[in-house]
Request: fold
Amino acid sequence: MQRRPSPFLLLLLWVWVPVVFAGNLPEKLGLHGGRSIYEAACAACHGHQGEGTPTDVAGFDQPDTFPHFNKCDETTPEYTRDWKAVILGGGAARGFSHIMPSFRGVLTSKQADELVAYLRSLCPDKSWPVGELNVPRALLTEKAFPESETVVTSAINTQGPAGITNELVYEKILGKHDQLEIAVPFQWARQDGGGSAGGLGDIAAGVKHVLFSNVHPPRDGPFSDSTGSILSVQGEVHLPTGSTAHGFGSGQFGLGLFAAYDQVLPAQTFAQVQAGVDLPLRTTHVARSAFVRTAVGKTFVEGGEIGRRLWSPMLEVIANRDFTRGAVTDFDVMPEFQVTVNRRQHVRAALGYLIPVNNTAGRPRQIEFYVLWDWFDGGLLEGW
Ligand code: HEC
Reply:
């Protein structure tokens, strides 16, 4: 149960804050720069170091998602764009608690940018990868940014033998540079001899490690327009849980290794590259292979500064090659888009169409889609 904020505090803030800030008073009072605005308007609830004001002082119980700006693990992975939306539109703008007031009409857009830059400075450890580097997830190209999310992906053949491959991916941040990943595929396919079969594919478990990340805020512009890059490597173990009799998985223990590099470019455009190898320990049913996956795209913000919905069209180009004599490199392209589904934007969906470009025999076109839940930002049913 959340306690209601003390009426006294609310009265103070709702009446005093707009009065003080009306008519650009902050500047008249010398309140420019994120820090002084923060001290005047935010510290009562968020604490002087961003640590959060104790419940008995603030008069409300902190929701689970209450941010502690001095705790790098809680706040660095967030997008500053979302913070600005919450500052201007209030908690309600992103499906958060209404206790977080709206400062629209009280603070200018520039002051909100200054505040956000100040909030970023409250995390003392600069080696955490910043949320600005968290590009939209592509359907196939895996990104470098570590996350805590659950994704369900489906690929449906639209040509050739009927078949559906689903995959449940669970990801969890393990500290500042590492992330655990478990992928469980389950498949269904029409069989050669007639009839159909369903079952597990090869389960994979891996760890991603960030080698470097850097973010460059623009000289005169909001932090959310930062560019930057991030590089990670991931090692995986593939378990022989697939049913090879039905054509699911390799039926072998195997290792996977890849590097992922994401580049955030100006104007919300981005490029992602993932390159790696799949190494089954024995190659009776499947060959060892290498792949390069790339995705380029741009995010469009619908709904002005608050950004009610984000649309991210992307194009992926995929290359695969088996390590067998005479093998050719298979190329695929996939036009796709990702869209935020709920107000908090931590539930998102993507839809794409995979088109094999060469060597098309036995490589069907597929409709692919996913639903992802970034559980770091709250429950699946929160924030709608
Ligand atoms: C009346 C108390 C109160 C005041 C004043 C207040 N906040 Fe908040 N703020 C909250 C609460 C409570 C939440 C948590 C909302 C939730 O997680 O549901 C919050 C959440 C936030 C978030 C997090 C949004 C996210 O994406 O997780 C940001 C950013 C924020 N506040 C910034 C500010 C800034 C900047 C100010 C001053 C201009 C401010 N707040 C003033 C109570 C307040």
Notes: The chain has a mean pLDDT of 88. Residues 34 and 111 are 7 Å apart (CA to CA). The domain at 133-377 is CATH 2.40.160.40 (Porin).
